[in-house]
UniProtKB/TrEMBL annotation:
SUPFAM superfamilies the record matches: EGF/Laminin, Family A G protein-coupled receptor-like, Growth factor receptor domain
PANTHER family in the cross-refs: ADHESION G PROTEIN-COUPLED RECEPTOR E1 (PTHR12011:SF449), ADHESION G-PROTEIN COUPLED RECEPTOR (PTHR12011)
UniProt similarity note: Belongs to the G-protein coupled receptor 2 family. Adhesion G-protein coupled receptor (ADGR) subfamily.
G-protein coupled receptors family 2 profile domain location: 786-1032
Biological process terms in GO annotation: cell surface receptor signaling pathway
Domain of life: Eukaryota
Location of this chain's protein in the cell: Cell membrane
Annotated Gene Ontology cellular component terms: plasma membrane
Protein name (Swiss-Prot/TrEMBL): Adhesion G protein-coupled receptor E1
Cited Gene3D superfamilies: 2.60.220.50, Laminin, Rhodopsin 7-helix transmembrane proteins
Source organism: Canis lupus familiaris (Dog)
Membrane topology, from the record: Multi-pass membrane protein
Domain GAIN-B: 615-781
Keywords: Calcium, Cell membrane, Disulfide bond, EGF-like domain, G-protein coupled receptor, Glycoprotein, Membrane, Receptor, Repeat, Signal, Transducer, Transmembrane, Transmembrane helix
Length: 1070
């Protein structure tokens, strides 16, 4: 044990001595290169005993210039070998310095066996030598030769080629016309050319091809070289470069000579005698010879001189002897003979028209003995030898003159001579009347014949006078003239119907015959008690008119007359008058004012222009003198805020005689009794519609002297002041008082509205009228028949809705999800229709009317939203018919539907009120404003719902027809197509789809659509009651039970009551 411990001790000691020895030896030799930071970058560290040293790597140089260095502060700097001289890469190269190295590349056109991008240290030696690009094919283009240069090459075009846009193109020597001699053709070839003499020419040296100058191409004389080149009977003609062949005279070749086919040219003899016509002419014989021909005349003919080239045979003329034919005959030579014919006016003695030989004579014809005579009527015929002479009887003449002989120019016709064209034929005051071959004289109108002298007739001595009563007749030579007594003027119609009438106005006796109501008040007539007030005012008006009519020779005071009429109008009260009496009184007042004004114009006072103002009427009058001499002159008249404008052209067109005057009158208060009840709208007969109108101006009157009162070319402009400001929805109508319509009515004929403002209305009329403004509302009121239909239909619907609501509430056996929907729709419809009937016309209170319109907006929107719910529920019910007795629509809670059916309409109304509160209530009904677009707050949702309901109903019908075959046998009776169609048609009305008819109330179908829309939609409540109650079998049983008071067991199946009246609707229980 002890020895073991001793051994262990010595072991520990040995290990300790070895460790200590190792640490000591390590402390003696330290390797400084083990630290990488000992030397700088790009330097190599070399350890030495007890030390070290640094050397820069190849390509770097120490900053202190020593090859071996030590310590800090020394760095290795890169050596730029490329800056050395000579450069290390050698000639024709590019040196690029790199960190510690360099890179060599050859210049373009040079290469190195070591390749480009050679870096120092790579194997091989970098040397750049020239590249011979010409050794490669295709370096230069075609027709070019390559020439190598140091580092490059160049291309040069070959001889005969020229460079153009880096392409060697052939030089076209033939482009220069001087390249080849005359009569030679130049042929260009690549790099060269050649000249060839043209056909018919040859070179002077005998060469086929020429090159360069010095030689010429001379003509070849083919005819001299070969005399028989053209053949027999022909002529060869040499021409420059060629020759031509032609036949001798008398010969021809069927083929034209051409150098290409000379063998086809053969000259043969021409047979001139076979020609047509013959060259010898008629009446001759032609004899053909070789190359020519000869002519000989037939018997009876002889040749004319001129040779064979112009040979003709002349006939022997027997008529050359003047004794061949007798006197008064004509000789006609014929071929080998002759014949004689008598001249015009003669006949042959043998009766033969053409004769020959002696013994025949020509005898004169007596044309005057023919019938009818050749000279015509009213003439004298005289026969002469071979002819005849014509002369006209006395009183006739011919354009060819008398003593016309046959053969003279022109045609002889005797026409009557009008002696009356000559002056002085008849004596004074007589007119000439031409007759056939003569004339006669007749005294002119106003003269009478006495001893062949025309004496004047004194027409004014006749009884009665031709001028009529109240006139003056003045005799004139051959006539007479009429003039009227003072206070009268002639009536239109001329002197034949001359009459005189009072000027220029009507008096009482002129008015009475025209009106039966005026005749009641004649002096001496028994006036009934009820007409007393009427006649009092009528007679007071006539008294003013009589003052003007009776004092014709004195000046009428317009001022006193106006004041008299003002007092009459002041006491006028028509409250107890009939409409006919009011019309008659107004007509008389208007006529009397016009007549007295015209009477004042008849003898005008010193005041040429007057303005007279009273409380009841105001008048401005003006005498027109020299003012209308100015071009486009216009006169303005004003009275009580109203105005009339008339031009000189209209005044001149009125044909006023004597004094010309114009007046304008405005009546205050007359519009109160000549009100809108007298208006007759000719554009819209009352049988179709009644227009809401009101009188909105004073009655005015235009007065002008002159016969013409209407149909003027230039209109008369009236500007009338509105009694009440014009509203935007009102439309003014210019009306005139027409006494020919029912004794007196306002009509719109003759005048149109030019301009309308809030305060004034401008009318343009083509007549002098009594005028006023009637204001019509912007639209027509409802047709009375439509009014009755709508109100009766809504009353029926209200009754039916009450019955339906009662049925849905009290009949518990039919109460289900669907009947609740029907109940809400019926309640909304009932409230909407009831409020419409009772409150739509309450327009007097604007706030109340706006509230009614808001409730109607909400109730009708609620109706349509419940219609939408019904359509959706119906669709969901039919869609799930694949699972019997199961409808997913029953899982929708009722209060959700109520929020939708009542909440969304309320939201729409609330938004509408916030955006445009003034959109509720109109001037004529308590409804939404239709003029500002506010109506779309109702029409927008309604149109959307109608479209959705129509789509859902159509979709429902399609699904139903597809699924009917799969429904169980309990509902097999739904296959009846007629029942399905009828219920689908009725569903259109219940779901509001019929409201779409309101959109089509335009054009020619508007009236029909209006009736359909009114009838169908006013009866919507009745349709609901009929479909959901009367046609529901279970409801029918309940009605029978109530009527008969019999208790029957309830049915286990409940009908839907919408469209599928036989589909069970009990809920799914499993």
């Amino acid at each position: 044990m002890w020895s073991f411990n001793l051994l262990l001790f010595w072991g520990y000691c040995g290990i300790f001595i070895w460790v200590m020895f190792s640490l000591e030896s390590m402390a003696v030799d330290v390797n400084e290169c083990a630290d990488t930071t000992t030397c700088p970058a790009y330097a190599k560290c070399t350890d030495t005993p007890d030390s070290y040293y640094c050397t820069c790597k190849r390509g770097f140089l120490s900053s202190n210039g020593m090859e071996q260095f030590k310590g800090p502060g020394v760095t290795c700097i890169d050596i730029d070998e490329c800056s050395q001289s000579p450069p290390p890469c050698g000639p024709n190269s590019v040196c690029e310095n790199l960190l510690g190295r360099y890179k060599c590349n050859c210049l373009p056109g040079f290469s190195s066996p070591t390749g480009n991008n050679w870096i120092s240290g790579n194997p091989g030696r970098f040397v750049c030598t020239d590249i011979n690009e010409c050794l490669s094919s295709g370096v230069c283009q075609e027709h070019a030769e390559c020439i190598n240069t140091l580092g490059s090459y160049k291309c040069r075009c070959q001889v005969g080629f020229i460079s153009h846009n880096s392409i060697c193109k052939d030089v076209d020597e033939c482009a220069d016309p001087r390249t080849c001699p005359e009569h030679a053709t130049c042929h260009n070839s690549p790099g060269s050319y050649s000249c060839v003499c043209n056909v018919g020419f040859e070179s002077s040296g005998g060469k086929e091809r020429l090159l360069g100058s010095g030689e010429i191409c001379g003509d070849v004389d083919e005819c001299a070289r070969n005399s028989t080149i053209c053949g027999l009977n022909s002529v060869c003609t040499n021409i420059l470069g060629k020759y031509n062949c032609s036949c001798l005279p008398g010969y021809f070749s069927p083929a034209v000579w051409t150098p290409e086919k000379p063998e086809d040219f053969i000259c043969t003899d021409i047979d001139e005698c076979s020609q047509d016509p013959s060259p010898c002419g008629p009446n001759s014989v032609c004899i053909n010879t070789l190359g020519s021909y000869s002519c000989r005349c037939n018997k009876g003919f002889r040749p004319n001189p001129g040779g064979s080239s112009n040979f003709t045979c002349q006939n022997v003329n027997e008529c050359a002897d003047t004794t061949t034919c007798p006197a008064y005959a004509k000789c006609t030579d014929t071929l080998d003979s002759y014949y004689c014919t008598c001249k015009r006016g003669f006949l042959p003695s043998n009766g033969v028209k053409q004769f020959k030989g002696p013994g025949v004579t020509c005898i004169d014809i007596d044309e005057c003995s023919q019938s009818p005579p050749p000279c015509g009527p009213n003439s004298v015929c005289e026969n002469i030898l071979g002819r005849y002479k014509c002369s006209c009887l006395p009183g006739f003449s011919s354009p060819t003159g008398n003593d016309w002989i046959l053969g003279n120019p022109g045609r002889f016709i005797c026409t009557d001579i009008n002696e009356c064209l000559s002056s002085g034929v008849c004596q004074g005051h007589a007119e000439c009347i031409n007759t056939l071959g003569s004339y006669k004289c007749r005294c002119q109108v106003g003269f009478i014949a006495h001893n062949s002298i025309c004496e004047d007739i004194d027409e004014c001595s006749q009884d009665p006078s031709p001028c009529g009563p109240n006139s003056v007749c003045t005799n004139t030579l051959g006539s007479y003239s009429c003039s009227c007594l003072e206070g009268f003027r002639p009536n239109a119609g001329g002197s034949l119907n001359f009459t005189c009438k009072r000027i220029p106005f009507k008096c009482k006796e002129d008015v009475i015959p025209d009106n039966e109501w005026v005749q009641l008040c004649q002096v001496g007539a028994a006036v009934e008690r009820e007409h007393g007030s009427f006649c009092t005012l009528m007679n007071a008006t006539f008294n003013v008119l009589d003052d003007a009519c009776e004092n014709r020779n004195t000046v009428v005071s317009l001022k006193s007359t106006v004041e008299s009429f003002a007092s009459v109008l002041e006491q006028t009260s028509t409250s107890n008058f009939t409409k006919e009496e009011t019309s008659a009184l107004a007509t008389v007042v208007l006529e009397s004012v016009k007549s007295t004004t015209l009477a004042a114009f008849l003898k005008p006072s010193a005041n040429v222009s007057q303005t007279i103002q009273t409380e009841q009427l105001e008048i401005e009058s003006k005498i027109i003198k020299e003012e209308c001499n100015e071009e486009n002159m216009t006169f303005h008249f004003k009275a009580k805020g109203d105005e009339m404008k008339i031009g000189c052209s209209t005044i001149e067109e009125s044909k006023s005689t004597g004094t010309t005057g114009v007046a304008f009158v405005s009546f205050l208060g007359m519009e109160s009794f000549l009100d809108e009840s007298f208006f007759q709208d000719q554009q819209m007969p009352s049988a179709i519609s009644q227009r809401k109108v009101k009188m909105n101006s004073r009655v005015v009157q235009g007065i002008m002297t002159g016969e013409k009162k209407d149909g003027f070319s230039d209109p008369i402009i009236y500007t009338l002041e509105n009694i009440e400001p014009k509203q935007e929805f009102e439309r003014p109508i210019c009306v005139s008082w027409d006494t020919n319509v029912e004794g007196g009515r306002w009509t719109s004929s003759g005048c149109v509205v030019l301009e309308a403002s809030e305060t004034h209305t401008v009318c343009s009329c083509n007549q002098m009228v009594n005028l006023a403004i009637i204001m019509a509302y912007g639209e027509l009121t409802m047709d009375f028949s439509l009014y009755i239909i709508s109100h009766v239909g809504m009353i029926i619907s209200l009754v039916c809705l009450v019955l339906a609501i009662t049925t849905f509430i009290l009949c518990r056996s039919i109460q289900n999800h669907n009947t609740y929907l029907h109940l809400h729709l019926c309640v909304c419809l009932f409230l909407a229709k009831a409020l419409f009937l009772t409150g739509v016309d309450k327009i007097h209170n604007k706030m109340g009317c706006a509230i009614i319109a808001g409730f109607l907006h909400y109730l009708y929107l609620a109706c349509f939203f419940w219609m939408l719910i019904e359509a959706v529920m119906l669709f969901l019910m039919v869609r799930n018919l694949k699972v019997v007795n199961y409808f997913s629509s029953r899982h929708i809670k009722m209060w959700y539907l109520c929020v939708f059916g009542y909440g969304i309409p309320g939201l729409v109304v609330a938004v509408s009120v916030g955006v445009q509160p003034q959109g509720y209530g109109m001037h004529n009904r308590c409804w939404l404003n239709t003029e500002t677009g506010f109506i779309w707050s109702f029409l927008g949702p309604v149109c959307t719902i109608i479209v959705i309901n129509s789509i859902l109903l159509t979709w429902t019908l399609c699904i139903l027809r597809q699924k009917l075959s799969s429904v169980n046998t309990e509902v097999s009776k739904l296959k009846d197509n007629r029942l399905l169609t009828c219920k689908a048609f009725a569903q259109l009305f219940i779901l509001g789809c019929s409201w779409v008819l309101g959109i089509f109330q335009i054009g020619s179908m508007a009236r029909i659509m209006a009736y359909l829309f009114t009838i169908i939609n006013s009866l919507q409540g009745a349709f609901i009651f009929i479909i959901h109650c009367l046609l529901n079998r279970q409801v029918q049983e309940e009605y029978r039970r109530c009527l008969t008071r019999k208790i029957k067991p309830s049915s286990e199946s409940h009908t839907s009551g919408i469209l599928l009246s036989s589909v069970p609707s009990t809920s799914k229980t499993d």
